[in-house]
Specification:
By secondary structure, the protein is of the alpha+beta class. The chain has two domains: about 120 residues, no CATH class; about 130 residues, no CATH class. About 55% of the residues lie in helices and about 10% in strands. It has nine helices and five strands. Strands 1, 2, 3, 4 and 5 form a five-stranded mixed beta sheet that branches. Strand 3 and strand 4 form a beta hairpin. The chain is elongated and about 100 Å long. The N and C termini lie far apart (about 85 Å).
Length: about 270
């Protein structure tokens, strides 16, 4: 890897340093490892400065940096441990050919001028394939995106069913308590009092369901941890957003039943009874 590799891919450096121009062919060999690799080889030690030997144990490669784990790489593999070597040092020790050149641009259309400049400066440079990093990762992530979309649709469907259920429950409760509400209105209860009565009763079931749902989610999130990306299983922002959405939907579901209950004519209710 060249000095700008991690900056180009946007991979954050956790500890130590990245590759520099001083990591040339004649310098002591160095490597950068991922967080997962550091935890696997040196679980109770600082990985920086440690020695990782080659298969024939003839040379020690010093760990100079630790980067964040990557779920997938451009080859389509996901290994438990990854190490990165300086390109100049690896090229001096192996006959491994140059396989890829990564260029970071603000938008895909900007790659054209970059390639034109490269061809003008190196007309004999072979180009086996020119593609964006996203296009290489697209095939690997397509199934994950499809799965996320399906689960999102299931979530929307569950939310819709919950909204209908809350609405139906409150409408039923308000209808069953129509005589009581009629008496309250006849005794002087105003529209706000009636709406508050219906909403408080409905909120009890919403809060109860929310508490049970949060408890179940906290207990089951460890089973989906491997499917999550860039978010923890117990991410507070995610739980807060979901709770806020449920509160908004519940408020909307309360509105019509509470409004109907507040519009009860006590004379009609009492006469029907």
């Amino acid at each position: 890897m060249t000095p700008d590799y991690f900056a180009t891919l946007g991979s954050p450096l956790i500890a130590g340093r990245g590759f520099t121009a001083q990591d040339h062919a004649g310098a002591p060999p160095v490597i950068i490892v991922t967080r997962r690799t550091a935890a696997a080889y040196w679980p109770d030690e600082d990985a920086i400065g440690q020695c990782l030997r080659t298969m024939d144990a003839s040379e020690c490669w010093e760990v100079v940096g630790i980067v964040e784990d990557t779920l997938w790489n451009v080859t389509g593999t996901r290994g438990p441990e990854e190490v990165f070597t300086a390109w100049a040092q690896m090229r001096a020790r192996t006959s491994f050919p140059l396989r890829a050149l990564y260029v970071r641009v603000r938008k895909p259309s900007a790659i054209g001028p970059v390639l034109a400049d490269l061809r003008a400066s190196e007309p004999d440079l072979p180009y086996m394939e020119v593609a964006s990093l996203w296009s290489q990762m697209d095939g690997q992530t397509r199934s994950w995106r499809l799965g996320a979309t399906v689960f999102s649709l299931f979530g929307v469907l569950a939310l819709a069913l919950a909204t209908v259920g809350i609405f139906g429950l409150l409408a039923f409760v308000a209808r069953q308590r129509a005589p009581e509400i009629g008496v309250r209105v006849a005794l002087g209860a105003n529209r706000r009092d009636v709406i508050g009565l219906v909403v408080r009763q409905g909120m009890f079931f919403v809060v109860l369901g929310w508490a049970l749902g949060v408890a179940a989610s906290l207990a089951l999130t460890r089973y989906v941890e491997s499917l999550l990306f860039d978010v923890t299983p117990t991410d507070p922002a995610t739980f807060a957003a979901a709770s806020g959405l449920i509160a908004i939907v519940a408020a909307l579901a309360f509105f019509l039943p509470a409004r109907r209950a507040a519009s009860v004519d006590p004379a009609l209710v009492l006469r029907s009874e």
